[in-house]
Structure prediction request, 501 residues.
Amino acid sequence: MSISVRRLLALPEWRESVGVLAGDVERVVRLARPMAPDRPVEPGELVVLVQPIPATDWRIDALLRRVADGGGAGVLLPAGELLETTRLLADRLGIPLLAAAASPLDLLISARLLLAAPALDRADLVLATHEALGSRIRTPEEIVATLTGLLDAPVALLDDSGALLAGKLPHINEVRVHEPVPQRIKLDYSVLLAHPVLLPDTARPTLWLATELPDANAARADIVPPALSVAAAAVQRWLLANRLELERDARSRAALLSDLLRLDDEPTADLRRRAADAGWGLGGWHVGIRIGTQSTVDTVARGREVERVLHAEGVDAVVIEHGDGWTGWVTFDQEPTADRVRALAAQLRAATHELQRTLDAHMGVGRPHPRADGLATTIAEATDAARMARTRPESGRFLHVDQLGMAQLLLEWTRTDTFEPAARALIAPLRGQPGDLIRTLATYLDAESSIAETAAVLGVHRNTVAARIERIERLLAVDLSHRDERLALHLACRAVTLAEG
Prediction:
């Protein structure tokens, strides 16, 4: 078996006590032996000096020439002073000159073990990983910390989008999270290794376990993947146990929600106690939220992501996995003012846009209602609003029930026989113009004349929207700051959209 000098330097014993003084560490080592004056150096031999030699001794330079002439792999000598001319000679000959702070004999033994049984280092690391992680369930933080210590390199746990969950990694963005296979990526000064964490019956990785070996450790890249696989199995055990707990909790929360939604009277003492145990306040005023998504989405697994997005937007809501999506609510101690409700709706609209980055989500929001019976009412309103929001891309697939009431009224007005022809004539100058001006106008009016919101719904820059609105006003000879003209155009857009949909 042959290995590079660099690979030897990656051994734990060598890494801690051997320094490179000169030469090419990519040279191949086939055997390692103590120096013997009466024996020729063989090709690929690493010559080990057991006893120190004075730095001025001519024998060091002579040994370097013998190793070069015989095709040897390098020289390992006890640490000490060395002449600069000797280093220059080693560099010129390309012979690695290594200095050992530890006993050269001990280093010789570890090198010969690796050469004799190249799988031994790999097996040792795998066994050490097994023993360190054990059979009990460990958290991701524990797993990452354990592996970091064993590999003497940074380790991180990533989700399926590449976001960091635990640990650290210098080049985290280099992990190709959409390729469900173990990865080995050579970087400028390191090697990146990544192993997918798969759950049963899933083809796409749920998480990724990755490490980055710097140049000093990069030679161990061949032995690390099996240890990553062992650690990935530990992460999988945690995932399955955590999933079981989440599903048990989700079933309990869904059952409690169903009992609350079926209330015809005041909740019983038992129901109040169960709600209190879950941390749900039934008093005060509630605003219902319904988030719908595709039936294929794992709502239990993605529930925490939904909670994180809501909290990031400043929404302190109860969220429960419920059907094809999530049902939730926000509770106020006192009846919220109209301004506070509008502010909450704006926060929830922003959360909808953020969720739509990774989910095919739509959201409906109810009006404020008091007490436990009001909770069922506002959730019912939110559910109706979400059902309509699903088919309303022009609203960003978000509807607040207060807006919905006006929208329903507008739709009723636009269903008359005489309104549609007039509506078509009103917005006719926009047809055939570049920039999809009719859709832009409809979205702008649905967004309550918000340039930023219109840009978010259309997926364009706000400057683009502003320029389109200016063109619309010029083509139609209207001023959209006047509420009567806005209402007329809103009605016209609704009529045309409804007829063409």
Summary: The mean pLDDT is 85.
